[in-house]
Amino acid sequence: MNGEEIVELKNVTKYFEKGFIKKVRNYAVIDVSLKIRKGEIITLIGESSCGKTTLGRIVAGLIRPSKGKVLWFGKDLWRMSKREFNRYRPLIQVVHQDPYASLNPTRTIYQILSPIIKKYYKPKSKSDLLREVKNLLGYVGLTPPDYFLNKYPHHLSGGMKQRLAFARSLIPKPKLIVADEPVSMIDMSLRLSVLGLMKKLNEDLGIAFIYISHDIATARFFADKATLALMYLGRILEIGSMDEVIRTPMHPYLRAILSASPIPDPRIAKRRRKIELKSLEVPREVVQLKGCPFSPRCPYSEDVCFENTPSLKRCSGHEVACHLVDKLPEWVPPWQVMV
Amino acid sequence: MNHILRIKNLIVEYAVREGSLRVVNNVSLDVPEGKITALVGESGCGKSSLLDGILRTLPPNGYIRSNGVWFKDINLARLSNEELRRIRWERIAVVFQAAQNSLNPVLKIGDHVLETYHAHRKGESKDEILAKARELLEMVNLDPKQVLNSYPYELSGGMKQRVIIALSLILDPELLILDEPTSALDTYTQSTIIDMLKKIHREKGLTMFLVTHDLPVVAEMADYVAVMYAGKIMEVADVETIFYKAKYPYTNLLIKAIPSLIGDPSDRKPIPGSPPSLLNPPSGCVFHPRCPFRRPICDKKAPPFFHVDKSLVACWLYGDTK
Ligand SMILES: Nc1ncnc2c1ncn2[C@@H]1O[C@H](COP(=O)(O)OP(=O)(O)O)[C@@H](O)[C@H]1O
Ligand SMILES: Nc1ncnc2c1ncn2[C@@H]1O[C@H](COP(=O)(O)OP(=O)(O)O)[C@@H](O)[C@H]1O
Ligand SMILES: [Mg+2]
Ligand SMILES: [Mg+2]
Fold this sequence. Notes:
The structure holds two protein chains of two kinds.
Chain A: E1 5-18, E2 24-37, E3 41-45, H1 52-59, E4 67-72, E5 75-76, H2 82-88, E6 92-95, H3 109-121, H4 126-139, H5 145-149, H6 158-170, E7 176-180, H7 188-205, E8 208-213, H8 216-222, E9 227-232, E10 235-241, H9 242-247, H10 252-259, H11 266-271, H12 303-307, E11 313-315, E12 318-320
Parallel strand pairs in A: 3-8, 3-9, 6-7, 7-8
Antiparallel strand pairs in A: 1-2, 1-4, 4-5, 9-10, 10-12, 11-12
Chain B: E1 3-16, E2 19-32, E3 36-40, H1 47-55, E4 62-65, E5 69-71, E6 74-75, H2 81-90, E7 92-95, H3 109-120, H4 126-139, H5 144-148, H6 157-168, E8 175-179, H7 187-204, E9 207-212, H8 215-221, E10 224-229, E11 232-238, H9 239-245, H10 249-256, E12 306-308, E13 311-313
Parallel strand pairs in B: 3-9, 3-10, 7-8, 8-9
Antiparallel strand pairs in B: 1-2, 1-4, 1-5, 5-6, 10-11, 11-13, 12-13
Helix pairs in contact in B: 3-4, 4-6
The structure holds adenosine-5'-diphosphate (2 copies) and magnesium ion (2 copies).
């Protein structure tokens, strides 16, 4: 690795209190340690309410963890001076899922971008400012820029709105962008082009990404050299390079998700065999700390799984938190069966 | 092949400030009985409006023209609102886009079932109706005891979608129309909803008309596919022809633009350009400004449908071959 850690999480836990009279702790993130270095990409995969957004917000300094440490550029985020915080803060940007909600609908694109450009670049004249805005629009693919300057967000398609959101986040020259489900709400056929833009930002500008999604099929288009981290009920269950994790998935949960992921090919999609779980959905009760979080749904779970929480251990080139790794059936990709 | 639904020259327009927006442009389509037919196209191409045109559920600024919409031998366009409303639940069930959010938040699911039932049919006792509901909830893999006693907010998005689908079957419809039934759900939940719909189709032989922008869902579920672009249907064929040997250039580009879990990522490419404004649609073939195989005639005259192999396709590429 090329050193220079942007953010490091050390045993981070975050719980929210639930209930009025008897307070219970609902754990959103449990004991997560993670490093993200310059230019690196981590994709965080998991079903909704598994803690992905909370983790992203902890990374971006928007939520203070209940336990554990967050380091920004090697320094303890929640202990640094206000001045230091303000210096680092713009270097870590967040782009949200909902392109409809994150842009002020009463302002034109020029009015959205120009104040931020003024603040960071201090252009000498109005024409310098205009040129910067146009360059930025061109760079993110909103071309021709002149056409877009006086448009309002509602004139844009979902994909264009996300391009605008990325344009805005680029102005402070960030080192890391936390992209929280940036393509989940836009049309299937537009997803590749937004992912392509993110790829370009990573390759040309060296911006690191934490890409949050429930969809591995999409994640793999962003970067094959990325790290994939699988999250479930607050914990990371498997982590490794995208390639390898897709080739030899170990955790039963990851296998189940892979077996059910989108494949736009009728012969394969219709005939593959999916891995069935004991219950269809993530349990909605308050998150328990005892045992493996996945044990109630796991088709293989044994007594030990309900008693002890497995920690991440090295296994076929990546890290897996599962008591049963040595006993699991060999992985045969469901889409290979009949080809 | 019998057709359960036949749409003839349907036009839907919205009155907007700038004029009128033709979002369904002279669409004709036959939906075969006992099969799953998918209508697929990018968001905004007019899929939901087409359904609203069939069922006459358009918002106040929407207008319909058509030469008829036949459900079996009934011309829906000729029915009074009341007659159509009755058919709409009893014989044609519809799961509208984002229907999960339309469950009345103050009613328990059990009361919902009774209310829905009684709004359309009288006579059966409460116990009979609830027994039927239990059977259907089990069919969609929900625990009836728990679910009937729950309020909507106590259920996850996936569970609500199951409830809505079960509820839509309570009057034994002959046709089930589903608008984006898996959008906004997680990968695994999506896949369990697809499996459940396939099971219902298999066990009840129920005809389904599936409307979605989600091509992987189409690949997994559909027997037949109609491809819609900018208010028009451009290609109709069986699912394998659409995915492996499509004739319409847009169909091929669309399939190549969809992320997939397998295959070489670099084979997948976004479609250049963007869909046209429906306020000011291109002349001739609506796809011509983005089409890599454009010919001189394409911006002059809208193509008619040609039968090419197993496809029915509206494209001039096949115009002079005969
Ligand atoms: N501000 C909050 N207050 C209380 N609970 C929260 C809050 N934010 C998230 N949670 C809870 O934390 C868990 C994880 O949520 P979230 O991080 O949004 O998951 P994801 O992004 O994976 O869907 C959920 O149970 C959610 O209800
Ligand atoms: N009530 C309305 N008034 C004006 N335009 C509308 C209305 N409803 C939908 N539209 C527009 O009609 C087009 C087709 O919409 P819709 O049928 O919802 O497409 P799809 O279901 O394929 O996403 C879109 O451009 C949409 O913005
Ligand atoms: Mg989230
Ligand atoms: Mg729609």
